[in-house]
C-alpha cells in the first residue's frame, strides 16, 4: 500500500478518488487551498470510508508549504488535481489560470524532485485533442491548440511533463485525458458542487430539477449529430476515480510519460442526457434551445482501448447510473455542501 499526496483532493473528482484510495488501503494526504471546494467534502470522505486522511490547507504555488508536506510524510506518488477549470473564466482572467495551472504544476514537480518523488498522475482533458480529429479520439491523434485558455494550460502542462520525463528517466507520469465526468458516490454524500452558475451540463440539469434554476439552455440544435445537439462521452466519477488507482499501479512499475483516455467510448447527445435524466429520476427538466456556445465541437467521445488494455481499467457504470447518482447527490444536498 502506498502513501499518496492528492493535490486538489477536496474537489469533485479528488474527493471521489480519495474514497477509492482509502477503500483500497492507501494512505492519503490531501493538499488543497479550498479555492473551489469545501473541507466538508473531506469530512464526508472519512465518514464514508471509516478511515482517516490527512488534510493540509495550502497552495501548490507555495514551495515552502509543499516542502513541509514532503518532509512530514513519506510520499510514494502524487495525484495532481489542483487547478482552476472554468472555461469562460479562463478567457477573462488568463493570468490567474496560467499561474494556478501552469506555474502551480511547475511548483509541484519541482517540490517532488526536491523530495525525490517521481511518480505522478496528472488530470488532463480531452480538450487537448485537435478539433479536426474525428471521434472516437485515440491517444495517437494529434493534439491541437485548444480554443480556450483553460485547455491551453492542460496542453502546456502535458507537454512540459512529457519533456521532463524524456530529460530525466526517474520520472514516471500518467496523463489522464478525462472526457466528461458526471455522477456522484452512490451514497449521495459527496458530489459536484460548482460555485455560481454551472458551466457544465450535468450540474445545470440537476439544479433545474431541484428548482435552483429555471430552465436549461441547450446550446445548439443544428449540429451534425443524431438529434442536432452536441454529443459527449460522459463518464461516472467513480469509474474516473478508479482509473487513477489503475494508473498509479501502472506508474509505480514503469518509467516515462504516457497518456490515456478516460471515457466510456459512448457518445450521448444533450437531448438524450436530458430525456434519460427525466425518465430515470421521474423529474422534469424545463429547457429551451439557445444558440451554439462558442468553442464547442459537435461530437467528442473516446477510444478507451488503451486504458482498458494497459491499465486494467474498465468503466462499470451506465449513463442511467450516472444520471441517477447525480440526482441522488443533488436532491440530498440541494445547496451542495452549504446544506
Ligand atoms: P474542482 O474545482 O472540484 O477541484 C479542484 C480542486 O483544486 C479544488 O478543491 C480547488 O480548491 C483546488 N485548487 C485549485 N487551485 C489550487 C491551488 N493553486 N492550490 C491548491 N489547490 C487548488 O475540479 P474537478 O472537477 O474535481 O477537477 C479536478 C481536475 O481535473 C482539475 O485539474 C480539472 O482541470 C481536471 N479536469 C476536470 C474536468 C471536469 O469536467 N470536471 C474535465 C477534465 C479535466
Ligand atoms: N451544454 C448545454 N447547456 C449547458 C451546458 C452545456 O447545452 O448549460 C452542452 C454543451 O454545448 C455540450 C455538452 O452540453 O454539447 C457538454 O458541455 P459541458 O460544458 O458539460 O462539457 P464540455 O464538453 O464542453 O467540456 C468538458 C469539460 C472541460 C473540458 C472539455 C473537454 O467541462 O473541462 O470537456 O472536451 F475541457
In short:
The chain is α/β, with parallel strands linked by helices and 339 residues long.
Strand content: 15-25%
CATH superfamily of one domain: NAD(P)-binding Rossmann-like Domain
**CATH class group of one domain:** Alpha Beta
Q: Tell me the CATH topology of one domain.
A: Rossmann fold
SSE string, helix = H, strand = E? Answer: EHEHEHEHHEHEEHEEEHEEHEEHH
Tell me the structural class. Answer: alpha/beta
Continuous helix count: 11
Q: Average pLDDT across residues?
A: 97
| Global outline | globular
Q: Radius of gyration in whole Å, from Cα?
A: 19 Å
The largest beta-sheet arranges its strands as 3-2-1-4-5-6-11
- What are the segments in which pLDDT stays under 50 over at least 5 consecutive residues? none
The largest sheet, given as strand count, sense and whether it forms a barrel, is:
7 strands, parallel
CATH architecture of one domain: 3-Layer(aba) Sandwich
Got a strand count? 14
Q: Give a list of the ligands.
A: nicotinamide-adenine-dinucleotide, uridine-5'-diphosphate-4-deoxy-4-fluoro-alpha-D-galactose
Determine the fraction of residues in helical runs and give it as a percent range.
40-55%
Distance between the termini: 35 Å
Amino acid at each position: 500500500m502506498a502513501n499518496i499526496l492528492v493535490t486538489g483532493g477536496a474537489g469533485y473528482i479528488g474527493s471521489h478518488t480519495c474514497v477509492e484510495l482509502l477503500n483500497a488501503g492507501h494512505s492519503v494526504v490531501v493538499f488543497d487551498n479550498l479555492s473551489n471546494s469545501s473541507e466538508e467534502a473531506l469530512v464526508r470522505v472519512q465518514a464514508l470510508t471509516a478511515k482517516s486522511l490527512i488534510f493540509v490547507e495550502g497552495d501548490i504555488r507555495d514551495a515552502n508549504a509543499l516542502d513541509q508536506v514532503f518532509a512530514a510524510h513519506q510520499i510514494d506518488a502524487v495525484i495532481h488535481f489542483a487547478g482552476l477549470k472554468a472555461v469562460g473564466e479562463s478567457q477573462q482572467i488568463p493570468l490567474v489560470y496560467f499561474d494556478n495551472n501552469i506555474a502551480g504544476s511547475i511548483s509541484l514537480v519541482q517540490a517532488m524532485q526536491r523530495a525525490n518523488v517521481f511518480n505522478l498522475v496528472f488530470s488532463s482533458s480531452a480538450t487537448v485533442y485537435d478539433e479536426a480529429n474525428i471521434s472516437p479520439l485515440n491517444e495517437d491523434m494529434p493534439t491541437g491548440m485548444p480554443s480556450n485558455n483553460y485547455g491551453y494550460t492542460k496542453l502546456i502542462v502535458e507537454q512540459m511533463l512529457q519533456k521532463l520525463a524524456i530529460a530525466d528517466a526517474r520520472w514516471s507520469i500518467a496523463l489522464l485525458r478525462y472526457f466528461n465526468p458526471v455522477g456522484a458516490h452512490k451514497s449521495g454524500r459527496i458530489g459536484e458542487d460548482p460555485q455560481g452558475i454551472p458551466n457544465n451540463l450535468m450540474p445545470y440539469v440537476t439544479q433545474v430539477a431541484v428548482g435552483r434554476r429555471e430552465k436549461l439552455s441547450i446550446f445548439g440544435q443544428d449540429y451534425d449529430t443524431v438529434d442536432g445537439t452536441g454529443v459527449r462521452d460522459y463518464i461516472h466519477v467513480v469509474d474516473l476515480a478508479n482509473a487513477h488507482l489503475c494508473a498509479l499501479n501502472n506508474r509505480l512499475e514503469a518509467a516515462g510519460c504516457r497518456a490515456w483516455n478516460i471515457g466510456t467510448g459512448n457518445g450521448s447527445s444533450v437531448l438524450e442526457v436530458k430525456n434519460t435524466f427525466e425518465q430515470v429520476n421521474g423529474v422534469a427538466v424545463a429547457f429551451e434551445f439557445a444558440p451554439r456556445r462558442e468553442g464547442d465541437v459537435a461530437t467528442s467521445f473516446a477510444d478507451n482501448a488503451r486504458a482498458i488494455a494497459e491499465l486494467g481499467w474498465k468503466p462499470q457504470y451506465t449513463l442511467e447510473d450516472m444520471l441517477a447518482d447525480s440526482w441522488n447527490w443533488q436532491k440530498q444536498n440541494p445547496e451542495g455542501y452549504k446544506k
